Amino acid sequence: MELTLWVEQSGSGDVAENVRDALEVIDRNEDFINMALAVLMAPE
User: Fold this and answer.
1) Crossing angle for the helix pair 13-28 and 2-9, nearest 10 degrees?
2) Model confidence over 3-34: pLDDT tens digits?
3) pTM for the whole thing?
4) I need a surface site. Which of 6, 15, 20, 27 has the fewest CB within 10 A?
5) Helix or strand (DSSP H, E) at 10
6) In whole angstroms, what is the distance from residue 13 CA to residue 22 CA?
7) What are the CA-CA distances from residue 40 to residues 5, 7, 10 (Å)?
């Protein structure tokens, strides 16, 4: 969220909204991302 606040203060509301949306998607998919990383990092 710090990035979003910094971008908003710089005057680019559209970019801040895009960053906020991207962070929301990452947050919603956190469990799946963690599972995928665990599979990739598992020893063979």
Assistant:
1) 170
2) 888 888 988 888 889 989 999 999 999 999 99
3) 0.68
4) 27
5) none
6) 14
7) 33, 33, 38
